[in-house]
Write a structure and sequence with these properties.
This protein is mainly α. It is built from nine helices and two strands. The chain has helices at about 1-10, 30-40, 45-60, 70-85, 90-100, 120-135, 140-190, 195-200, 200-230, and strands at about 105-110, 115. The chain has a two-stranded antiparallel ribbon. Strand 1 (about 105-110) and strand 2 (about 115) form a beta hairpin. It is rod-shaped.
Length: about 230
Amino acid sequence: SSVSAGASAAGASGRLPGWRRRNPPAVSMTLLVQQMAALLKGGRTPARLWDELWLLHVGGTSDGSSELAPESVRMLATARAAAMRGSPVAAAIRSGGTVLSGGQGAWRARGGGTVLSGEHRVWLQLAACFDVAEASGCPLAEVLTRFAAQLEAEDDAEAARQTALAGPRATVRLLTWLPFLGVGLGMLLGVDPADVLLGTPFGLAALAAGLVLTAAGRIWSARLVRAAAGLQP
């Protein structure tokens, strides 16, 4: 693959060619795991791995900016520091995740349950991959390769879900603005619905009921779309 080729070509220079561009997009956790697997297959040791990732995504920039999400930068720094001390990286990742779980690493769902953010969840799963490789003796590169394939499948499923929800979201917006478009169309046709709605008691009652029902329909439709997307209602 192109990721493996890039890692192999980085043997002499210590940098991965072609992965830094002007105004690059944010690096997803899927790509980060793929890069980790590629570096290991290219001959990097697990202890050296975190230095390489730090140099690639944080230390190699002149202004200290990063393509990674802020939470991933903090977790990467935690793992790198543990590797430099010779401490277990998986335990350090879990400890860092515990600190984040009270802030940006998680949000509270209705009913008091804690739901991990995507970044936090993947980092904890990454720590589990290190534990599995250490306990079973399986090459860490192979474990991370399989984990990256799983994350890529999840990304594809999420993209398909968002595509399927594009139609319902457009319908919600259309139905929200349709009554107002109807009033504007009536005014263009010379019916003057504003005079009827604002000038008679029945018109005012119809206007109030219409606004309430429109708002209720908007809220209800939005909740249905969010529930289908797997988000907090």
